[in-house]
Amino acid sequence: MARAVTPRRKALNTLIAWAIGLMIFFPILWTILTSFKSEAQAINDPPLFLFFDWTIENYGVVQDRSDYMRYLWNSVIIAGGSTLLGVVVAVPAAWSMAFVPSKRTKDILLWMLSTKMLPAVGVLYPIYLLFIELGLLDTRTGLVIVLMLINLPIIVWMLYTYFKEIPVDILEAARMDGATLRGEILHVLMPMAVPGIASTILLSLILAWNEAFWTLNLTAAKAGPLTAFIASYSSPEGLFFAKLSAASTMAIAPILILGWFSQKQLVRGLTFGAVK
Amino acid sequence: MTLKNMKNVLRTTSAAALLAAVGAHAVSHADTVTIATVNNGDMIRMQKLTDDFTSRNPGITLEWVTLEENILRQRVTQDIATRGGQFDVLTIGTYEVPIWGRNGWLVSLNDLPAEWDVDDLLPAIRSGLTVDGNLYAAPFYGESSMVMYRTDLMEKAGLRMPEAPTWEFIREAAAAMTDRDNETYGICLRGKAGWGENMAFITATSNAFGARWFDENWTPQFDSDAWSTTLNFYLDLMGDAGPPGASTNGFNENLSLFQQGKCGMWIDATVAASFVTNPNDSTVADEVGFALAPDTGLGKRSNWLWAWALAIPAGTQKEAAAKQFIEWATSKEYIELVASKEGWANVPPGARSSLYENPNYKDIPFARMTLESILSADPLNPTVDPVPYVGIQFVAIPEFAGIATEVGQEFSAALAGQQTAAEALDKAQALTADAMEAAGY
Predict the structure, then answer these.
(1) Which B residues in the span 59-118 are in contact with A, Cβ-Cβ below 8 Å?
(2) Chain B contact for A44, CB < 8 A?
(3) Do B252 and B118 have their domain in common?
(4) CATH number 1.10.150.130 is the correct assignment for the domain at A66-232
(5) For a Cys staple, B241 with which of A130, A139, A218, B186, CB 3.0–4.6 Å?
(6) Looking at A2-16, A66-80, A176-190, B2-16, which range is the least confident one?
(7) What local confidence, expressed as pLDDT, does residue B222 receive?
(8) B117 and B227: one domain?
(9) Same structural domain for residues B134 and B187?
């Protein structure tokens, strides 16, 4: 039975939720606001919130100086490619762990996750040298592979958790009806796990989109995604906060819009299995 | 068309497209020079003017990789040490050039043509970029450090800034200019931890107080009286007349404070002079004066020397094209090109003597003081007592960046009041001794 919630309590909860939401969103809001200020207004003390001379000059300067579309396209390919490749590899892996577990399944899962605990810089040089040998430096292919490998443990874990929620009897029934392994995964398991797969894809996309260590270290002039675009506006000797904010806003806008439109899917996927 | 025919057409088209792509790649590959650079006003201006270079050199195209300087340093070091070959021209500073030149990582620029006029380079800058007679990088712009001060506040305090002040005068003036109720602080200095942040400033300051990082046997000297005097003076000065939260202030934070009229004096890079006198950004643009960095009468001033320079990594396939680019970007003609497009105040300063002989440039208010600051810096003899190293605000050894960043954290913690000067110096001495022993000195 649902617990009775008084209107007062409901209003309080809403207020707290809004306050937390605003607190989390505030740095992004501040970045967006700063992008419409002049460099002098950006460092004004006390800080200017809404009442300043709004200008879109910074966007013009950024667009003029950098080829935004090239960076955006690189981001789309790298984030999209690594996510798709990750899902293709992770679905069979998660299926086998969820439905035909062995004695070592739990250990393998933990081991996979433990690779995330290794600081990335620890394997930078081996990977860099490998990339030189394979001719993958400053290529989108190289980054697709690296980001796929980095996000793979999380993708497998998430899919494994969702697959565990699906009754094994349904898959057995499909098998008894003559479904092949491929048919069982493609036509029975995946349609049932769509919310889980969708939220996994979204999370992987966001992680790959925001990844700034490998994308900065393994690219130069050609394959740099939007993280490299933002980094080019940071400077310890010179005040370019407004331009940096404009570049940041342009970089986060696509993923912000994607997140906005898919938030229902994302929330549904993340809470999938939590409520029965 | 049958299915088989379609397949053949597709196959042929794909093969042709692939060949075309490979061909196009090969052509562009041969002519494309990739330049790694930092994000600052002069470098961005150069990127905007590259049409001039490409129109003179139609066979060469330029690609830019612009990064924040610490990321760039790490990225370029990694690439050059592994011979990754990602860059054909590097933007590096006077700290890297002696180390990398000695390692054989850079191409000598001794064979640049006579009209490039190597003898026109400012001697201090040239010597900072030369190893064993080989010029390994061409200076794009150079800088020293100097005092930037508010003429109106100085006058209000009843003081007159000498051209070459002492630290004692700076202390008196800072105290007299401080008005905490109105958020005016007598002096703004770097406090943020980092070898290129607070340690650049404090190391240069320590030279004037007779301190040094190492003696002739590479023994750390943080346990000396000179270092104790330096650090205590800096902490007292900042405590008496510095802004609140100074331990997190670097170049940008102090620039912002000065531009908003909150600093009486700011001792920092000469390149800041064009920012604080720019009326579009600075509220005190018309009330700024300049003086040499202070001393204590021991024969060394507290100014540093730095140059951003263009170098070619050994092993690049495009050495000739890279040299052509460097020759263009660091030439006298380039300076004139910038002047014609953006005005004389925006030309890259501090690299060539001829710039300071140019009557058009003499009118720039900070030109003379910038030149005098650069000329008074000597990276080969930076300290009162002899030292085994080159460098004024740094020690040109590979271990320095790591050690100085850790020492900088101790000094920054002392400025934040988390420990005393003596504790910070003890820790600095211990960690430097450990690191140097581990490095085999």
Answers:
(1) 63-71, 75, 78-79, 82-87
(2) yes
(3) no
(4) no
(5) B186
(6) B2-16
(7) 97
(8) no
(9) no
User: Are B78 and A39 an interchain contact pair (Cβ–Cβ within 8 Å)?
Assistant: no
Instruction: Name the residue among B376, B336, B304, B335 with its Cα closest to residue B140.
Output: B335
* Helix residue ranges per DSSP H, B129-267: 151-156, 167-177, 198-208, 225-241, 251-259
- Residues of B whose CB is below 8 A from A63: none
| pLDDT confidence tier of residue A270, bands split at 50, 70 and 90 | low
| Pairing of the two strands B134-135 and B130-131 | antiparallel
* Contact residues on chain B for A38, CB-CB shorter than 8 A: 280
Q: Taking Cα atoms as reference points, which of A86, A28, A79, A18 lies closest to residue A225?
A: A79
The 8 Å CB, 24+ separation contacts for B3-10 are: none
Query: Does residue B224 have a pLDDT over 50?
Result: yes
pLDDT band of B109, cuts 50, 70, 90: very high
- Mutation target for B interface from A41, A48, A63, A237: give the one with most B CBs within 10 A: A237
Residues of B in Cβ contact (< 8 Å) with A225:
none
Q: Has residue B368 been placed in a domain?
A: no
Containing domain of residue B400, as a range?
Answer: 145-305+379-438
Residues B56 and B205 in one domain: no
Pairwise CB contact (< 8 Å): B281 & A129? no
Higher-confidence residue: B428 or A5?
Answer: B428
B22 lies in a domain? yes
The average pLDDT across B405-414 equals 96
Domains contained in chain B, number: 2
Q: Which residues of B touch A231 (CB under 8 A)?
A: 67-68, 71
Q: Is the Cα torsion angle B135, B137, B138, B142 positive or negative in sign?
A: negative
- pLDDT per position as a tens digit, B242-292: 999 999 999 989 999 999 999 999 999 998 998 899 888 889 999 999 999
A231 pLDDT above the threshold of 80: yes
Inter-chain contact A234–B68, Cβ cutoff 8 Å? yes
Burial of B278 (0-12, 13-18, 19+ CB in 10 A): middle
The CATH number that applies at residue B168 is 3.40.190.10
Domain boundaries, chain A: 66-232
Contact residues, chain B, for A243 at CB < 8 Å: none
Tell me if A43 and B260 make a contact (CB, 8 A cut-off).
Answer: yes
* One domain, residues B59 and B183: no
What is the nearest CA distance from B86 to chain A, expressed in angstroms? 6
Residue at B391 is within a domain: yes
- Whether residue B367 lies inside any domain: the answer is no
Task: Report pLDDT digits (tens) over B8-25.
Answer: 543 444 444 444 344 334
In this structure, the answer to whether residues B49 and B82 fall within a common structural domain is yes
